[in-house]
Amino acid sequence: MKKYGFNLLCVLFLFTIGINAQEKQTFKFIEINKKQAWDGGYIQRDFEYTRVYHENNIIEEIGILPGSHSFFFKIKKGNWYIKNLKQWEIFYSPEKNVSPKIFSFDRWFSLKFEKKDFVNTSECSVYTFQNEEYSTKQGDKTIIHSEVNDFPFTQYWFNKELGIIKIRSGDFEFVREDVLKK
């Protein structure tokens, strides 16, 4: 009985180490067109997000959209898949232009493919973030929301090796620090 308890303790300890041994990487987005504040200084808008590498080519992006939950991606044969409500859906394909949908903030959004572009030497697909029509209930009435835009003209530059490396939202542009140093 003592041996069983010791073995169980060893297994739990190794399992805990395995969970904590997931590789993590932090990326910093730098504002590249800093706007001067009213007092002559600058407002610090740079931000960081964390990427956690899980097994089977699955990565978790934490903090890539302010206020959002984590996004899980699976990379398989050059294709990127995003996990939406427990289901894997195509996010990026090197063979065709994809306009993926993502579920965040309790509703659906689409990323409309716009064009191919470069950030330094990294080839990218550029997507525009768009609201999807959604409905809410108020008593016995259903209200359709289609003109709400929480992300006015937000674009993402996505690279098949690095993920999202540039974000433009309105007058603000952010590029990942590691890409700027290339």
Query: Tell me about the biggest sheet?
Result: 12 strands, antiparallel
**Distance between the first and last residues' Cα:** 59 Å
Which value, in Å, is the CA radius of gyration?
20 Å
Please provide the ordered H/E string of secondary-structure elements. HEEEEEEEEEEEEEEH
Work out the oligomeric state of the chains in this entry.
Answer: single chain
Query: How many DSSP E strands?
Result: 14
Read across the widest sheet, the strand sequence of neighbours is: 6-5-4-3-2-1-14-13-12-9-8-7
> Helix fraction?
10-25%
Which strand-content bin applies to the residues?
Answer: over 45%
Describe the fold and architecture:
This protein has 182 residues and is mainly beta. The chain is 13% helix and 52% strand. The protein has helices spanning 2-20, 177-180, and strands at residues 23-31, 47-53, 58-62, 71-76, 79-84, 87-92, 101-104, 107-119, 122-131, 134-138, 141-145, 154-159, 163-169, 172-176. The strands form 2 sheets. The chain has a 12-stranded antiparallel beta sheet. It is globular, with a radius of gyration of 20 Å.
Topology of helices and strands:
Layout lengths: L1 H19 L2 E9 L15 E7 L4 E5 L8 E6 L2 E6 L2 E6 L8 E4 L2 E13 L2 E10 L2 E5 L2 E5 L8 E6 L3 E7 L2 E5 H4 L2
Antiparallel strand pairs: 1-2, 1-14, 2-3, 3-4, 4-5, 5-6, 7-8, 8-9, 9-12, 10-11, 12-13, 13-14
In short:
The protein is mainly beta. The chain contains two helices and 14 strands, in the order H-E-E-E-E-E-E-E-E-E-E-E-E-E-E-H. The strands form two sheets. A twelve-stranded antiparallel beta sheet has the order 6-5-4-3-2-1-14-13-12-9-8-7. A two-stranded antiparallel ribbon has the order 10-11.
